[in-house]
């Protein structure tokens, strides 16, 4: 009831696309009975969770914040959803986000922007903007988002909370609406690292419905007294980076050194290639993944009875998708087209391979990489209009998805306007538990 009241008091923030009021109260009552009967309790017994509107929940609507899936009901649950429920979490509703998780400000939702509770004129980040604000404003305890290129970490940064993307292959993607399948991971947004760890433990691990998922690591390396960190010098000197953020992160690095850790700069000459590589590969994958929304199989269908099949596809997709999704489908089909495939898609795959090789080398020497999460704090709704400028602000987050490593944004700082921003840490692949322990050590 407390959380439902919070949600209705904060409805102007537009964080939720649907709230399951009756169902949540019924589940709470059932769980209450179970607790009093003395039977053993699930690890998330009574924990109030919100899920981004790209994660399927059987017999509940899921729309990817798109008109094309308006009124579509899931016929099965995502593995992550099933595991939350099996451990007795209460899913209280589905959360607003950028359409098909494409965006950085939640302004690309077909159902209106989400507002940042710290300053309602500002964006909460995206694409998991509703999920971040729901935790930020105390409307649920934790949220599940999705992170293809920063969509959990970036809104966590803008909202002053913790956001973590585990390694690729850590959490099943079964029942997660696909944006770019070789990048997508479900991530967790919470107020603290312990909550992230608990939820990760419940939902991660092998799944017969997603062959890319690995077994959960069975042991966490013990904490050491001191660690070896590195940072990318050119990332901290980058022209797009807000000077306050740069100063605070440099100050934090000094503090770590003072505490006996080693922190060293490494040369990272691929920095300027990561955003273009990310947008070539993700739009290519998206153009293929989104071809299924054709007005025949799912959701919205153009109702003009005179249409032949091609016209039905065309009109359904023209009316169903928003401008950002269309832009990305066009970009994706372009980079995959016969004449340009080698120049863009193949080239980007080669850069991705170089990045993986470079990353393996880095982790031979260092325990973790330190980066900002986002170059600037949250901006005003409507302020940024140039899509390329918005793409370029993904400079610090997309790297982890390109190489499949875990990454976390920790809310460490605030600027003089009281706007929060985070510190980002990344560790080697499949080392998320270690990354979480390290995070706790540092904050
Ligand atoms: N901002 C990035 C994009 O627009 C990240 C999206 C995501 O992680 N889903 O693609």
UniProtKB/TrEMBL annotation:
Belongs to the amidase family. GatA subfamily. It catalyses: L-glutamyl-tRNA(Gln) + L-glutamine + ATP + H2O = L-glutaminyl-tRNA(Gln) + L-glutamate + ADP + phosphate + H(+). The active site is at 52 (charge relay system), 127 (charge relay system), 151 (acyl-ester intermediate). It comes from the Bacteria. One of its GO terms (cellular component) is glutamyl-tRNA(Gln) amidotransferase complex. It comes from Segetibacter aerophilus. The keyword Ligase applies. This is Glutamyl-tRNA(Gln) amidotransferase subunit A. Residues 1-436 form the Amidase domain. Heterotrimer of A, B and C subunits. GO terms for biological process: translation.
């Amino acid at each position: 009831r407390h959380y439902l009241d919070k949600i209705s008091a904060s409805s102007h923030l537009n964080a939720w696309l649907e709230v399951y009021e009756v169902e949540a109260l019924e589940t709470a009552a059932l769980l209450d009975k179970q607790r009093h009967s003395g039977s053993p309790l699930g690890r998330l017994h009574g924990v109030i969770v919100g899920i981004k509107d790209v994660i399927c929940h059987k017999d509940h609507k899921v729309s990817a914040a798109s008109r094309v899936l308006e009124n579509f009901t899931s016929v099965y649950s995502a593995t992550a959803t099933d595991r939350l429920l099996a451990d007795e979490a209460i899913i209280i509703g589905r959360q607003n986000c950028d359409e098909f998780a494409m965006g950085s400000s939640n302004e690309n939702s077909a159902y209106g922007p989400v507002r940042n509770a710290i300053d309602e004129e500002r964006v909460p980040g995206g694409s998991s903007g509703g999920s971040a604000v729901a935790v930020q404003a105390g409307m649920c305890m934790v949220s599940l988002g999705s992170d293809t290129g920063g969509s959990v970490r970036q809104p966590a940064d803008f909202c002053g909370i913790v956001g973590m993307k585990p390694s690729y292959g850590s959490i099943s993607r079964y029942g997660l609406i696909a944006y770019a399948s070789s990048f997508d991971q479900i991530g967790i947004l919470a107020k603290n690292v312990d909550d992230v760890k608990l939820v990760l433990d419940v939902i991660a691990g092998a799944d017969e419905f997603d062959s890319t998922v690995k077994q959960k690591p069975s042991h966490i390396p013990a904490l050491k007294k001191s660690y070896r960190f590195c940072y990318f010098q050119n990332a901290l000197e980058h022209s797009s980076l807000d000077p306050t953020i740069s100063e605070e992160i440099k100050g934090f690095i000094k503090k770590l050194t003072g505490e006996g850790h080693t922190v060293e700069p490494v040369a990272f000459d691929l920095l300027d290639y990561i955003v273009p590589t990310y947008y070539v590969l993700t739009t290519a994958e998206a153009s293929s993944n989104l071809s299924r929304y054709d007005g025949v199989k799912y959701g919205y269908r153009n109702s003009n009875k005179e249409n032949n099949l091609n016209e039905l596809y065309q009109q359904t997709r023209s009316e169903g998708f928003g401008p950002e999704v269309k832009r990305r489908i066009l970009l994706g089909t372009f980079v995959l087209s016969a004449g340009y495939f080698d120049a863009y898609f193949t080239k980007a795959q080669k850069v991705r391979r170089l990045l993986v090789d470079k990353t393996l080398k880095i982790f031979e020497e260092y325990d973790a990489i330190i980066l900002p999460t986002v170059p600037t704090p949250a901006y005003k709704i409507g302020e940024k209009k140039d899509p390329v400028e918005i793409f370029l602000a993904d400079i610090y987050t997309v790297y982890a998805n390109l190489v499949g490593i875990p990454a976390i944004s920790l809310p460490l700082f605030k600027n003089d306007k009281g706007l929060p921003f985070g510190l980002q840490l990344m560790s080697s692949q499949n080392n998320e538990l270690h990354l979480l322990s390290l995070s706790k050590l540092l904050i």
